[in-house]
Design goal:
Length: 261
């Protein structure tokens, strides 16, 4: 056995069309795994199909139960089972505090941000669960430093990422001993496509287009580096590998050491 993921039959990286999810796809493939990718963005679906012709890419919305079922079915059909589910979808709120949010924006923004950042994971895990139970597989969710601290997003993003932290703990408890559930908590990340919520008129705005982002990211963490998706991807590989078979309900903080600042 040479790759960390040799022998893993199938994986679904939800939201694997860009950024951290795409880096996880590439790292899993390089470690010998077979990967299927659900993604809702048409252009990203096309790019994945062109870059990785052997990877089944399933067009669908991660917030919908039926689309998650279809993605899992496709992976199982192609690979004969499912060992790992990775959730990488997410949208941002561009640091909007409650003070800046209009009363009339709260319902729409809450529904959209919590649907994408939280509910999608419930649907993905629910769809994959029968197969993960059979394989004694594992789930890896994507948190953020926002799951631990304020000010790394606005009130809705920070609250939604705290909820992902709650999902990791609750699901790890509920699904043991058959299925391990862990998370990666990335710090601010370069070269991703993370966008704002449509309900806030921010769906065309990209976090990485903010001026001076690279220097700002490096300056905010003790290790002084601006991390990319590739820097985080190996944490997903470790948690997904059988080498982590004794770890559940836990988190890898891939964040440049922000907690010791
Ligand atoms: N970029 C950062 O600084 C940062 C830091 C910490 C955590 N995160 C988290 O990492 C994860 C990945 O974000 P990223 O920065 O790589 O952004 P990204 O936009 O590049 O990746 C998110 C992916 O999810 C897809 N997606 C969004 N909504 C979807 C839906 N409803 N159905 C299916 N696919 C959908 C997008 O098309 C995209 O491919 C998110 O959960 C984000 O909150 C990002």
């Amino acid at each position: 056995m040479t790759g960390w993921m040799d022998g893993q039959r199938a994986l679904v990286v939800v939201g694997g069309g860009s950024g951290i999810g795409r880096a996880v796809v590439d790292a899993f493939l390089s470690e010998g795994a077979q990967v299927a990718v659900p993604e809702h963005d048409r252009a990203k679906v096309d790019r994945l199909a062109a870059d990785l012709p052997k990877v089944p890419v399933v067009t669908g919305d991660a917030t919908l139960a039926a689309d998650n079922r279809a993605a899992v079915d496709r992976a199982v059909q192609q690979f004969g089972g499912l060992d790992v589910l990775v959730g990488c979808v997410g949208i941002f709120d561009f640091y909007r505090g409650l003070t800046e949010l209009g009363e009339d924006e709260i319902d729409g923004a809450f529904d959209e941000i919590f649907a994408v950042n939280v509910k999608s994971h419930l649907h993905s895990v629910k769809a994959a669960l029968p197969e993960l139970r059979k394989s004694r597989g594992s789930v890896i969710l994507t948190e953020s430093t926002s799951a631990y601290y304020p000010a790394r997003g606005g009130v809705m993003y920070v609250a939604s990422k705290h909820a992902v932290r709650g999902l990791t703990t609750a699901l790890a408890h509920e699904l043991a001993p058959e299925v391990r559930v862990n998370a990666v908590a990335p710090g601010g990340t370069m070269n991703t496509d993370l966008r704002g919520a449509d309900a806030l008129g921010l769906s065309d705005k990209r976090l990485n287009d903010m001026p001076g982002r690279e220097a700002e990211l490096a300056g905010r963490v003790p290790l002084g580096i601006a991390m990319s998706g590739t820097d985080h991807a190996w944490s997903y590989v470790f948690l997904a590998s059988r080498r982590a078979r004794g770890i559940t309900g836990d988190v890898v903080h891939s964040d440049g050491g922000i907690r010791i600042k």
